[in-house]
Specification:
Blueprint lengths: L7 H20 L2 H10 L3 H9 L9 H7 L5 H18 L5 H13 L6 H14 L2 H8 L8 H10 L3 H13 L2 H13 L29
Helix pairs in contact: 1-6, 2-3, 3-5, 4-5, 5-6, 5-7, 6-7, 7-9, 8-10, 9-11, 10-11
Length: 216
């Protein structure tokens, strides 16, 4: 469920929370100890750590985002699962400042790094992102490797800013991507002419053999 956040008090609280998260990540302490448990080879230990991820909130976003590209597939998957738990917990009703703090940490890691973790971050932002997340997400509509995920993530967000971003991208997108953007705009109730849905175009050319007259 999307929420609108209003007022300087909420934004100030989010900045304080994000700053606190950054300090915790820098100095170690509870976050480092928790990451050690998450990395444990003991399944009971790492599963318990994953379950408790929401307790750390925004402070755990950076170290978890770093683990999304880890060469250990199981650890990377565990980190992704923990990060989603944080995002969805922050997206609960009446958790505006917490959601903004998590959002800020996700945005900070969206611009650079391996492709797959950034795809994951886009989808996480689509769940809790406010208008503030739209601009950095929309910037990836010009990235050939990430543009489809950015488009789909923005399409999910019930925000006027997301519609404007998709419109702006459509105006300057290469022809091969305009069809996908047109589809997103139509989903959001925006009429687009000249770029019909490619879902209606057969992917395989077929021919129909005429029936021969009976008796031959």
């Amino acid at each position: 469920m999307k929420r609108a956040f209003h007022g300087s008090a909420c934004l100030t609280a989010a900045r304080v929370a994000a700053a606190g998260a950054a300090r915790d990540a820098e100095v170690g302490g509870p976050v480092d100890e928790w990451i050690t448990r998450l990395k444990s080879m003991d399944e009971a230990t790492n599963a318990a750590a994953c379950q408790s991820a929401p307790d750390l909130g925004a402070a755990a976003v950076k170290p978890l985002a770093d683990l999304l590209a880890d060469s250990d597939f199981e650890l990377a998957r565990r980190a992704k699962r923990a990060l989603y738990r944080i995002v969805r917990h922050a997206g609960r009703p009446s958790a505006g400042a917490e959601a903004l703090a998590v959002q800020a940490e996700l945005i900070a890691r969206l611009g650079n790094g391996p492709v797959q973790p950034r795809r994951d971050l886009l989808w996480m932002l689509s769940e809790i992102g406010t208008a503030r997340a739209v601009t950095p997400m929309a910037a990836l509509l010009m990235d050939k490797e990430l543009r489809e995920d950015a488009r789909c993530a923005l399409t999910r967000m019930a925000l006027p800013a997301a519609t404007r971003a998709l419109k702006s991208a459509f105006a300057k997108a290469p022809e091969d991507f305009k069809y996908a953007l047109a589809e997103s705009l139509r989903v959001r109730g925006q009429p687009v002419e000249g770029y019909p849905s490619r879902k209606l175009v057969p992917s395989v050319q077929t021919t129909v053999k005429p029936l021969e007259p009976k008796g031959k």
